[in-house]
Amino acid sequence: QVQLVESGGGLVQPGGSLRLSCALSGFTFSRFVVRWYRQAPGKERELVAGIISTRNSTKYADSVKGRFTISRDAAKNTVYLQATNLKPEDTAVYYCYANDGFNDYWGQGTQVDVSS
Length: 116
Prior knowledge:
Blueprint: E1 3-7, E2 10-12, E3 18-25, E4 33-39, E5 46-52, E6 58-60, E7 68-73, E8 78-83, E9 92-99, E10 104-106, E11 110-114
Parallel strand pairs: 2-11
Antiparallel strand pairs: 1-3, 3-8, 4-5, 4-9, 5-6, 7-8, 9-10, 9-11
């Protein structure tokens, strides 16, 4: 059974940092794409960052370039999103997404609040 479990969200002041984690389990295939999305209240879900598991190919939304970094730890089967210089507009529920070439999988989401 495929599972994606996010963690690491919370309340942080503007300019602060957080590291979100997405622990993946149950994948049969070794190659998959993992992305972080976010959804703020009243807004559509948007892509934040993505990575391909077999190589360090990454992409970012323009709004987070230079502030967020996506990375993976193959030994732990975990993908991270390091978020720095956080802004109030980064407040959202952050979701981990994975695709193994056949199916889409979503985590339950983790809340990030950026406020003073």
